[in-house]
Amino acid sequence: MSDTRRRVKLYTLNEDRQWEDRGTGHVSCSYEDTEKETSLTVTAESDGSLLLESKINTSTAYQKQQDTLIVWSEAENYDLALSFQEKAGCDEIWEKICQVQGKDPSVEITQDPIDESEEERFEEMPETAHLVELPPCEPERLEEIAELVTSVLSSPIRREKLALALVSTGYIRKLLQLFRTCEDSEHREGLHHLYEIVRGVLFLNKATLFEVMFSDDCIMDVVGCLEYDPALVQPKRHREFLTKTAKFKEVIPITDSELRQKIHQTYRVQYIQDIILPTPSVFEENFLSTLSSFIFFNKVEIVSMLQEDEKFLTEVFAQLTDEATEDDKRRELVNFFKEFCAFSQTLQPQNRDAFFKTLANLGILPALEIVMGMDDVQVKAAATDIFSYLVEFSPSMVREFVMQEPQQADDDVLLINVVIKQMICDSDPELGGAVQLMGLLRTLIDPENMLAPASKAEKSEFLSFFYKYCMHVLTAPLLANTAEEDQDLSEGSARVNPVCPDNFQTAQLLALILELLTFCVEHHTYHIKNYIMTKDLLRRVLTLMNSKHTFLALCALRFMRRIIGLKDEYYNRYIVKGNLFEPVINALLDNGTRYNLLNSAIIELFEFIKVEDIRSLIAHIVDNFYKALESIEYVQTFKGLKGRYEQEKERQSRGLSRYRRDARSFEEDEDMWLNDDEEEEDVSDTGFEKSKSDYGKFMESEKAKESQDKENQPKRTTTGSFKFTFSHSAAAANASNGSKPPPSSSSSSSKPAAPPSGQTARTGLVGLVDYPDDEDEEEDDDEEQSPRKRPRLGS
Question: Distance (Å, rounded) from C-alpha 18 to C-alpha 289?
C-alpha cells in the first residue's frame, strides 16, 4: 500500500452540490471471474476498511479532469470523484476503465448520460454528422457561432461534441484573439455576441475547456468578454478591478511560482463564478457543477502546498507574535490566517486535524490573545473568526490551553476573559460580534462536549476554573447595571427603584449575558448554585423586571423560571428567604390588562408551581401575595394555588404534621454550606472590582446617554389595586415573615456540600413539608388539572 501512484481521496457530491471528503486510501481495479465484471475498490489507508466498491458499467459516463481527477455518477443524485496524488496513477486507472467500456483512453469522457430517444436519433444520423463543424472565426460569423453554442446546451451529446471540437482546433484562443480585435475597433455588436459565446462555453461544463480558458494568458480576456453583457447600457469594468483594485498581498513572500499561479487562478475563477456570472436558474443550476469542482480542488491543492512548506508557517507565526511587527503588517497576517483556516475546511478530516494541531503547536491561541486585545475592529473580527474555527474543531484543545494560563498570566489577559471583554465592549449597535462570541463561550462551557470518559476530570476542572477566574468578568455588566441606590428616604417619600438600564444596546448586552447564565443554570450544578446564592444574583437579575425593554424583563423572568424548573429545595428556600416573587408580582400588576407575552410568561410560572405542587413556594405565595392576586380571574391559576394551600393545611390539621422537621435544621445546613465559601471571598471580590472597573471604562460614554433617557422616561404607575415595594435587602425581606437573613458571603465555591437527601423546609406561617412517607396519604383531588386560560375580553 506504499505505492503513491494509487493513493487517492474519495469525494461525494452532497445535496447542496458541494464535494464532501470521504477519506484517503488506495485504489485498485479487479476482475471477478464469478461475476464476470470489473470493479473499482478504494481501501482506507488508516485502518484498511473498504471506502468504495463500484462496478464499472459499460453505460456509466466516466470523466477525466485536470489530469488527476476521475468523476462519474452511480445514480441520478449520487456523484463520485477520485482525486489521485499522481498523474500516472490516474492515467493507469483511466486506461482500465476505457478498456472495460471499449473506449480510446485519449478521450476525456467515455460517454454521456443521454436519453434513449436522443441516442436512437444520434445513431440514425450519418457518420459525417457526428462531427460539429465550427464556422470560421471571423467577426461577421460571430452571430452564427453564438447561435451554435446556445443551441447545443440542451443536448448532452452535442455539448460533448462541441467541446471536443473547441479543444481540438484551438478555437478558444482564436475567439479571444477576435475579442481583442473587436474591442480595439469598438465593434459593440460583435462584443455582445462574444459575451453569449463565452458564457455558453462555460455552461458546457467541461474541465478541458476550463483549463484553457483559465490559463494565465487567457483568463483576463475571458473576463473581458463577460464585461459586455447585452443587457447593460455600459460594460462592467471587471478587469480593472482584478488588475488595479484587487491587490495580492504576500504576508510572507511565496517563492513557489506554481503556488502563486494557483492562488491567482483560484481567486479569479471564484470572482467569475460569484460576481460576473448571473445566478443560474433552476434549469441551469447543474451547468456549472464542474466549475465548482475546479475551484474546490484548487483550494485543496493550495492548502496542501502551503502545509508542505515547513518554513512558511513558522515565519508567519514569528512575525505575528513579534512585538516589533507593525499594526498594518499584523492585520495582514491575521487576515491571511482567517482565509487559510477557511480554505482548510476543504481538507479531509484527518488532514484538517493535523492542520489545526500544527497551528496549535505553533502558538495560534497565544497569538489570538494579542490580536483580540488590539483596538483595530477588522483585526478583532478576523481573530474572532479564527477563534471560532478552533472552538468548532476542538473545544477541549481550547479549554486545555486556558486552564494552563493562570500559572503564567493575570486574570485580565486570560484568553476567555479577553473574549468576554470583547463581547461586552462590542461597538456594533446590533451586537453582531457579541452574539457570535456568546455562542463560542456557550460551546466552551457546555458539558455535553465534555462527556467522553477521558474528559470527566476536564469537566470538573474547567468549570471550577471558569467560575473562579472568569464568571466575575461575565457578570460585571449585569451587577454594575443592577446596583442599588443607597439613599436615605424620609418618611412617606417614594422608594427609588434600583438602577435599570434604558439604553437599548446595554439592554441587548444584558439579555445575552442572561441567556448564557440561564444556560449555566440548566447545565451546571453546584457551581452556578453557589454563585447565585453567594452573590444574591437572582435578586439583582429581577431588578431588570423594571426595564422599559420588555425583552430584557422576559430574559430576567426566564432566568427565574429555569431555577424554579429545577425543583431544587435549596433554590426554593433562597427565593422564599429573599422574598424574590415580589418583583415578579409587581411586574404582573404593572402590566395591567394588557394581554401580552409578559403576562403569559408570568402566569405560566405560577401555573408550573401549581401543577408541580411545589409546596414551599405555594405557601409563600399564598401567605404573602394572595390578596393582590385573588382579583385575577381570567385564569384559574391563583385560585388553584389557594386550593392546594388549603388542602395541605387541612391535611396537616388532621395530624400529619408529625412528619415535619424543624426549619432551623434546613437553615443550619444551608448556612454551613454557604459559609464554606468564605475562604475564597477575597479573591473573588478583588476580581469582581477589577472587572467592574474595566466595564466602567467602556460604559462612561453610555452613561451620559442613559441619564438623559431617564430624565425623559415616564414614571411607571401601578395599574392594580395592590402594589408591593421591592425590598432591597434580604434582611428586610425576611423581617416580615420572621426568618433569618441569608449569609453575607459574596464568593462562589467550587466545593459545596451536597444538599441533604429528601430534606425540605418549613416557610411562612404554616410549614408545608413533603416527605416520601406522605405519598400513601395523598388524596386524589391533589391531581387536579390546570384549567385552560380564557381569552381576555377587554384590553
Answer: 9
Cβ(340)–Cβ(300) below 8 Å:
no
Closest CA to 670 of 729, 793, 566, 754: 754
* Backbone φ and ψ of 100, nearest 5°: -65, -40
Instruction: Burial-class residue 78 by CB neighbours within 10 Å (0-12, 13-18, 19+).
Output: exposed
As a whole number of angstroms, the distance between CA 27 and CA 671 comes to 69
What are the distances in angstroms from CA 201 to CA 36, 282, 319, 360, 446? 40, 19, 45, 45, 51
CA gap 619, 613 in Å, rounded: 10
Residue 611: its pLDDT value, please?
Answer: 94
Cell numbers standing for residue 104: 480510446
Give per-residue pLDDT as tens, 625-649.
999 998 888 899 999 999 999 998 8
Rounded distance, CA 3 to CA 24, Å?
13
Which pLDDT value is given to residue 762?
A: 37
Contact status, residue 484 vs residue 496, Cβ threshold 8 Å: no
Q: Does the model's pTM come out above 0.85?
A: no
Distance CA 550, CA 594 (A): 13
The region that residue 431 occupies, defined by phi over 0 for left and psi between -120 and 50 for alpha, beta otherwise, is left
**pLDDT level of residue 475 (50, 70, 90 thresholds):** very high
Distance CA 720, CA 593 (A): 9
Q: Name the β-bridge partners of 63.
A: 71, 109
Q: How far is CA 351 from the centre of its chain?
A: 22
Read off the DSSP letter of residue 366.
H
Q: Cα separation of 581 and 529, whole Å? A: 18
pLDDT, averaged across the chain: 77
Task: Spell out the long-range contacts of 172-180 with Cβ–Cβ below 8 A and sequence spacing 24 or more.
Answer: 172/201, 172/209, 172/212, 172/213, 172/218, 173/212, 173/218, 174/137, 175/137, 175/145, 176/218, 176/221, 176/222, 176/225, 177/137, 178/137, 178/138, 178/139, 178/142, 179/221, 179/224, 179/225, 180/221
Cα 581 to the chain's mean position, in Å?
35
Query: Are 155 and 148 within 8 A, CB to CB?
Result: no
Q: How far apart are CA 652 and CA 659, in angstroms?
A: 9
Strand partners, 24: 9
Query: What dihedral do alpha carbons 115, 120, 124, 130 form, nearest 10°?
Result: 30
Q: Which residue has the cell 440514425?
A: 124
Q: Give residue 2's pLDDT band: very low, low, confident or very high (50, 70, 90).
A: low
3 state DSSP class of 375? coil
**Residue type present at position 291:** L
Rounded to 10 degrees, what is the CA torsion of 575, 576, 577, 579? 80
Measured distance CA(785)–CA(342) in Å, rounded: 54
Per-residue CA distances from 102 to 95, 129, 236, 750 (Å) = 10, 22, 48, 73
Instruction: Return the CA Rg of the chain.
Output: 36
How far apart CA 347 and CA 303 sit, in angstroms, is 8
Grouping H, G, I as helix, E, B as strand and the rest as coil, residue 642 is helix
Gap between the Cα atoms of 581 and 539, Å rounded? 10
Dihedral sign for Cα 745, 749, 753, 759, please.
positive
pLDDT at 364 exceeding the cut of 70: yes
Query: Residue 39 and residue 191: Cα distance in Å, rounded?
Result: 49
| CB 27, CB 93: distance < 8 Å | yes
Residue 206 · residue 260 · CB < 8 Å = no
